[in-house]
Design a protein that fits this description.
The strands form 3 sheets. Strands 4-5-6-1-7-13-12-8-9 form a 9-stranded mixed beta sheet, with helices on both faces. It has a two-stranded antiparallel sheet with strand order 2-3. The chain contains 13 helices and 13 strands. With about 400 residues, it is of the alpha+beta class. The chain is about 35% helix and about 20% strand. It has helices at about 20-25, 65-70, 70-90, 110-125, 135, 140-150, 165-180, 195-205, 240-245, 275-290, 305-320, 335, 345-360, and strands spanning about 5-10, 35, 50, 100-105, 185-190, 235-240, 255-265, 295-300, 330, 360, 385, 390-395, 400-410. The chain starts with a strand and ends with a strand. It is globular. It has 2 domains: about 5-245, Thiolase/Chalcone synthase (Peroxisomal Thiolase, Chain A, domain 1), CATH 3.40.47.10; about 260-400, Peroxisomal Thiolase, Chain A, domain 1.
């Protein structure tokens, strides 16, 4: 079996569009949540979202024509992928492109293009629908576009598992490299679904927080929590076989040492209240990673701020770790970024890598009121220093999808 390491990272997020800005802001507890500015939200019950700010696609594309043929979720993915590839310097090495792949997922895909082209169809007729509508809409096209951009001809596929999407993408890429099918894979996720249609759907399934105060929008593990805040963006990591990375003198951020993929088989939106699927996933990752009782661990929790998820995730951590659960460093960076859907797992994996390499636990901001169902150390308010050896990142999606990865300091 091969070892797998992280040699490059890139982000587009509501709290920063590059790794340094992102890390600076989440360790300082900067909130990326604000009132909706992307569209007129006067018809909605929700007032808040977590939008990407100051994103300029021209910084990542060679021509305006390429941008026009790309949905926003594809643009975010391309930007994060370019950052990760540049950071890794992998293209400066003697790389076999047939062993170089792309695993970038999206929970929803090009829904902005779908909405825009549907309006064209209704208002102007079928002849006015863009010939690029289908490639802009489908959820595999971020992977396809990034593959084309970098000439990656190896194992290449998207993943679509709602909120667990990009953690599954990272995990499957890890397994692909671990078992010898690729030398390096550009892996992560992207989402751009902030529009009236998507938000109306989430409101009507009672998933979103209805607060109109940004500091009270995303309240993971807090007793006042009432739903998540929709975010957007992309996170991409360059995963690479250890000897391949070492041979070219790459900077290594962390090692990927475990991955698990389970299903609740319980409900289309609600998690299993006993957390059976999450427990099995976390247990499997702890075993594969070789995590012991004495190790100091950071858990980047799924922590959406919904009542059911946060209570279940807390219960799952206690079932896996027993009394040691109270010694875990836990936080939800969604308190700052909102819920970035298909991008959230990769962005949180990046936060976990940076927590390991910097010895700093990012906070859960705006946490004020303790809930008897959520009684762990959620790193309230401010970042803390900690010499952690392992990080675990949980992603738990609609449909009962559970994805967990473990990372080790190197």
């Amino acid at each position: 079996m091969c070892r797998v390491v992280v040699t490059g990272m890139g982000v587009i997020t509501p709290v920063g569009n590059d790794i340094d800005t992102f890390w600076n802001n989440i360790t300082k507890g900067v909130c990326g949540i604000d009132h909706i500015k992307r569209f007129d939200a006067s018809r909605l019950k929700v007032n808040l979202d977590a939008e990407v700010k100051d994103f300029e696609p021209k910084d990542y594309y060679d021509t305006v024509q390429e941008i026009r043929k790309s949905d926003l979720y594809m643009q975010y993915a391309m930007a994060a992928a370019k950052q990760a590839v540049t950071d890794s310097k992998i293209l400066e090495s003697d790389l076999d492109k047939e062993r170089f792949g792309v695993y970038i997922g999206s929970g929803i895909g090009g829904i902005n293009s779908t909405l825009r082209e549907t309006r064209k169809l209704d208002d102007k007729g079928p002849e006015m629908v863009s010939p690029f509508f289908v490639p802009m809409m489908i959820s595999n096209m971020a992977t396809g576009a990034v593959s084309i951009k970098f000439g990656a001809k190896g194992p290449t596929l998207p993943v679509v598992t709602a909120c667990a999407t990009s953690t599954h993408a990272l995990g499957e890429a890890y397994r692909c490299i671990k078992h010898g099918y690729a030398d390096a894979i550009i892996a992560g996720g992207s989402e751009a679904s902030i529009n009236e249609l998507a938000m109306a759907g989430f409101i009507n399934c009672q998933a979103l927080n209805l607060s109109d105060v940004p500091e009270e929008g995303s309240l993971p593990f807090d007793k006042r929590r009432g739903g998540f805040v929709m975010g957007e963006g992309a996170g991409v990591l360059l995963l690479e076989e250890y000897e391949h990375a070492k041979g070219r003198g790459a900077k290594i951020y962390a090692e990927v040492v475990g991955y698990a993929n389970t299903s609740d088989a319980y409900h289309i939106t609600a998690p299993d209240p006993e957390g059976d699927g999450a427990v099995r996933a976390i247990k499997a990752v702890v075993k594969e990673a070789g995590i012991s009782e004495s190790d100091e661990i950071y858990v980047n929790a799924h922590g959406t701020g919904t009542h059911l998820n946060d209570a279940m995730e807390t219960k799952a951590l206690k079932k896996v770790f027993g009394n040691k659960a109270y010694d875990l460093h836990v936080s939800s960076t969604k308190s700052m970024t909102g819920h970035m859907m298909g991008a959230t797992g990769a962005v949180e994996a990046i936060a976990s890598v940076l927590a390991l390499s910097n010895g700093v636990i990012p906070p859960t901001i705006n946490y004020k009121e303790r809930d008897e169902e959520c009684d762990l150390d959620y790193t309230p308010g401010k970042a803390v220093k900690a010499d952690i050896s392992y990080a675990i990142s949980n992603s738990l999606g609609f449909g009962g999808h559970n994805a967990v990865i473990a990372l080790k300091k190197i």
